[in-house]
Amino acid sequence: MAARSARAAVGVIGELLITAGVLVLLFVAWELWWTNIEADARQDDAASNLIQEFAAPDVGAPGEGPERSTADQAEQDRADYGEPPIASVDSTTFALLYVPRFGEDYVRPVSSGVGLEVLNTVGIGHYPQTQRPGEAGNFALAGHRQTHGQVFYSIDRLTDGDRLYVQTAEGFYQYRYRSTEIVTPATGEVLAPVPHQPGVQPTESLLTLTSCHPLYTTRERIIAYAVLESFRPLEAGPQDAIRAAYRSVAQ
C-alpha cells in the first residue's frame, strides 16, 4: 500500500515537472521569438509613420545616379551644408536610426526615455539626460539585443569604416564608428558628454549605443561609440548608403 502511494506520488510529481518544463519552454519561445515578431511590426509602423510626418522627399532606388563613398559624400555634405543643426527632441518618437552593418534595410525608430515601456515596444530609447544629434556631447541610445525586436543584436559587429545615420525632422546626421568597449552595468560615465570624463567640456558630437552583453545575459554592457562627421538637410534626401532602407519604410 505504501509502495503504491509512493509510486503515485512520484507519478504526480513527474507530471508536474513535465508541465513546468513545457511552461518554461513556452515562456522562452515567447520571450525570444514572439516578442521580436510583435516588436518588429510596431517598429515598422512607427518608422513609416515618422517618415510620413517628416514629409521627406521621394528618392531614386540604389544605383540610380552616381553613388559616392561614405567619406566622399561626407566631405561634399560638409562643404554644401556646413555645420549640423541641433536636432529638436520634442515628441515621444523623434528620430530614425539607420545602421547598414546591421542589414541593408535596417531602420528603427528612436523614442525619448529608456524605460521598459519604450525598449519593449518601440525599440530604441534616448537617455534623456544626454545630448541631441548635432549638439556637442553625447547622444546616447539604449536597446535590447535578443528580445523585443533585438534592435542592437549585431552591435558587436561594428568595425572600422562603418557609418551610422540618424534622421530627424532637421535632416540626416552621418556618424563614423570609432570604438567599442565592455563595462559593468554601474559604469554610468559612458553617458557623460565626454565618456568617462564627467565635467569635461565636449568638443565633438558623439552617438553612443548601449546594450546588454554577452547575449542572453545582463551581466555586462557593450558600448559602441561613433562621431558625427556630416549632415544633410531633409530636402536633400538620404545619403547613398541608406537609400534602400529609407525607401523600404517611406513607400
UniProtKB/TrEMBL annotation:
<dbReference type="Pfam" id="PF04203">
    <property type="entry name" value="Sortase"/>
</dbReference>
<feature type="transmembrane region" description="Helical">
    <location>
        <begin position="12"/>
        <end position="34"/>
    </location>
</feature>
<feature type="active site" description="Proton donor/acceptor">
    <location>
        <position position="144"/>
    </location>
</feature>
<feature type="compositionally biased region" description="Basic and acidic residues">
    <location>
        <begin position="65"/>
        <end position="81"/>
    </location>
</feature>
<keyword id="KW-0472">Membrane</keyword>
<keyword id="KW-1133">Transmembrane helix</keyword>
<protein>
    <submittedName>
        <fullName>Sortase A</fullName>
        <ecNumber>3.4.22.70</ecNumber>
    </submittedName>
</protein>
<dbReference type="InterPro" id="IPR042003">
    <property type="entry name" value="Sortase_E"/>
</dbReference>
<keyword id="KW-0378">Hydrolase</keyword>
<feature type="active site" description="Acyl-thioester intermediate">
    <location>
        <position position="212"/>
    </location>
</feature>
<keyword id="KW-0812">Transmembrane</keyword>
<dbReference type="InterPro" id="IPR053465">
    <property type="entry name" value="Sortase_Class_E"/>
</dbReference>
<feature type="region of interest" description="Disordered">
    <location>
        <begin position="56"/>
        <end position="84"/>
    </location>
</feature>
<dbReference type="InterPro" id="IPR023365">
    <property type="entry name" value="Sortase_dom-sf"/>
</dbReference>
<dbReference type="GO" id="GO:0016787">
    <property type="term" value="F:hydrolase activity"/>
</dbReference>
<dbReference type="InterPro" id="IPR005754">
    <property type="entry name" value="Sortase"/>
</dbReference>
